[in-house]
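### Sample
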Amino acid sequence: MSSAKIAPSATALSATIKHLSVNPRFTSRIPVTAIGRRSKSLGVSMCSKALEPLEVCAKESATTPNKLGDCPFTQRVLLTLEEKHLPYDLKLVDLRNKPEWLLNISPEGKVPLIKLDEKWIPDSDVITQALEEKFPEPSLATPPEKASVGSKIFSTFIGFLKSKDSSDGTEQALLNELGAFNNYLEYNGPFINGKVVSAADLSLAPKLYHLEVALGHYKEWSIPPSLTYLNAYMKTVFSMDSFVKTRAEPRDVIEGWRPKVEG
């Protein structure tokens, strides 16, 4: 296990918008409604900032010791910590040789894991919700009606990546989802929640990164230039300080998807 205390980047996400050079129509046409509190409580106490670094378990790189691995769900958690300016103590775990201490706190041996209020919490969905409730400022909440935007892209990407038949429709299914997201951004962007980055972007962006790297390597495929708003979106989120700091190296992403391609 490797451990390192991480200080989050100080750059506010709103500053990244100035780097987006697209059509002036790239403005929000849907008013942002007030976001209500979630009904399901995770049993964490609310506070403004973490006094001590939060412990986070993450996958270690399969190609480079002491480097973060290729899990997009872990990157989502780390992006949330970075954008909320929360310090964290990153514990890298070799999942090919899972240590006993990991199995003691996570019997299935899965990551990411985070320790909140002396309890280890698994699953990126649960973790990010818990962080939003415990550390509500700055808010990353996504309005419920926008939370599922782009949610089918990842599964269609996997289907196309695994496909060995060029006529099975998996490429077109992916193009349909990417096109729908591009159209959404044209009228509601530049981000999923309009002019502000939200939890939905932090969930989708790592998956788009994996899509770009894996399909580029294994299929020599790239997102069509005609999807102007999607390409601009990816360029913007991929260049954010927090994203650059928490992303896996391309070679790790390639190795991580190899079993899906060759299996």
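The CA atoms of residues 92 and 226 lie 39 Å apart. This sample (Glutathione S-transferase dhar2, chloroplastic) is used throughout the tutorial notebook.
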